[in-house]
Amino acid sequence: MSDFTLHTVDSAPEKSRPLLEASQQEMGMIPGLHAVMAESPNVLNAYQTLHQLALDSSFDKDEITVVWQTINVENACHHCVPAHTGIARMMEVSDDITFALRDEKPLPSDKLEALRTFTLAVMNKQGNVSKSDLDAFYSAGYRQRQVLEVILVLSQKTLSNYINHIAETPVDEPFRKFEWKKASA
Length: 185
Fold this sequence. Notes:
Blueprint: H1 17-27, H2 32-37, H3 41-55, H4 61-74, H5 80-90, H6 95-102, H7 110-124, H8 131-139, H9 144-167
């Protein structure tokens, strides 16, 4: 069991308090991840900023879900996969997409599958993708902007996935019904 503190607005460092208040206001709760990150105001601020930038990217709701969940599943994040399952439902992403991602099954469109494949290539090759990786991504209709935005989302998810692993962040109550374990684990 981790000894990381799950901060409240009252227990958090002063500079984290307004960030936690914003989480509470936006989501109606303070997610466990934010409660852990509050120990470092800079980390919580960076995560919240990256999250908003991901939402403001050129990806539509299905595409951002594919990038988020591809990374979460590949990193076997016990916290983020259930959370993003719930988020996908709130965003009205098809369960066909959500469960294909969770179960590592083919996605319902070639374009989304190309996005997952490219995201995995960026992750697993630490950015050293090949010309054929790029060509396949571009052939699916994506451009350089989306290459960069995959990396943006990867930076967001690296923060959350790694912190959740180390802190053993408990799954938030609204997402417990979506608990998940990696099939190959």
